[in-house]
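Example 3.2
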Amino acid sequence: MKKLKLNYLLIGVVTLLLAMALWPSIPWTSKAENRIADIKTRGILRVSTVSGPLTLNRINGRDTGLDYELAQRFADYLGVRLQITIRSGIDKLFDDLDNGSADVLAAGLVYNSDRSKEYNAGPAYYSVSQQMVYRMGAPRPKSLNSVKKNQLTLAPGLAAISELRTLKSQKYPRLSWTIADKQNTTALLRQVVDGSVAYTIADSVAISMFQRIHPQLAVALDVTDEQPVTWFSLRNNDDSLSAAMLDFFNLMNSSGTLARLEEKYLGHVGSFDYVDTRSFLRAVDNVLPDLQPLFEKYAINIDWRLLAAIAYQESHWDSLATSPTGVRGIMMLTRNTAQSLGLSDRLNPEQSISGGARYLQSMMSKVPESVPEDERIWFALAAYNMGYAHMLDARALTVRMKGNPDSWADVKQTLPLLSQKAYYKNTTWGYARGHEAYTYVENIRKYHLSLVGYLLEKDKQKTLRQQLAQHYPVVNPREMFNPVFGSRPLTPSVAGDADEKNRSTELSTLAQALLP
């Protein structure tokens, strides 16, 4: 996946210039009859989106997602309530604009010339490339010229379709694809993983997140260069909504909110380690069930799955783990720390998890109150790893580097400098393995992302088993869900038995038929 790029200065300048150009002719704050006035009169901002970890995801009864948080802030900016409608696919989103049931689409949509002919695009807030994916272990296409008939399946409304038409007319005349009218991109990614679809195309961020729970999904090639992601509204003679969005994103940029949200949702997306992710998911199946009640019991003011991710980074959930420096147990506590917490046996899983959770909470309580609530955990984890004093040194160094000491996005960039003499000689507490603290926190964030998504996937499979049992009570659901790709959801094939593969394909077809 290409590294995400955001030029906040450029976004700010373009936003300001466009707002200045539009403002004299669009007095949306006072004009009684325009789209903003309609929204304010209604008291509701209607936003359509699709479900996903980056758009809108409900975890423990709480809505999260980059687009959701931005949409909520936009509604607050307008002084109205937010009404979210979740659609099954991209094509359904644009139907909402066409029939007047949505004011804005906020769903990680890519800007392209076809969409801009009928819809107004808002400011870009991150960028992606369109990539073709295949299942690891299957033949990898070296170019679009290698794609054979019926191999490439796409979701309706996908932005890459217009680029494919251009490539077909100019470079790859034999290129063909199939549109799966009733499938969205996520469903097609799953089908690539289970082998029922050879290739599909999705954006680089969606693919990177999907790989966290399905590591056997592999990128074959880039179909496009990086493209801006933006919101869309209906194009007509009234540009008051576009002007409001320009002003809103300019405020989000200038206040640093956009940068913080990007760090929260995109800062740990880039790199992917297939072997490490496979090992982690295997441990989730085989080791975590015994430890989960302890993580749930002792997680203090944090998600228990985050505490579990911390423990995995520390010891890979090995209660007997011991390092050369003498730290031991699942949470890898030092003897002094264990004694200060009243622990008698660091190798006892319950004592270790309890002590580690309390020690982390003490680090959380020390983080300066100026640090945003949703970023305090990352500062605390850095302190947990390298010591609170060194974390303070990193904040002070960030200030000297003209950064924001309350922004994790800024502070994490200075952490590796604590191991370089040119920088640590001027700090209060001297040398620290800041590069290790950086890696430590980013790994935990990746494990947490994988764990949340993987457990949600398992819950969906459990629900589907129950649905299949109701529709076909004479068939043992365990037999139906014994696919060739293993016990974990959609993991790579270990055996090559043809009968099992056929049964897996039939199950996938049946499961799709039962989905709404």
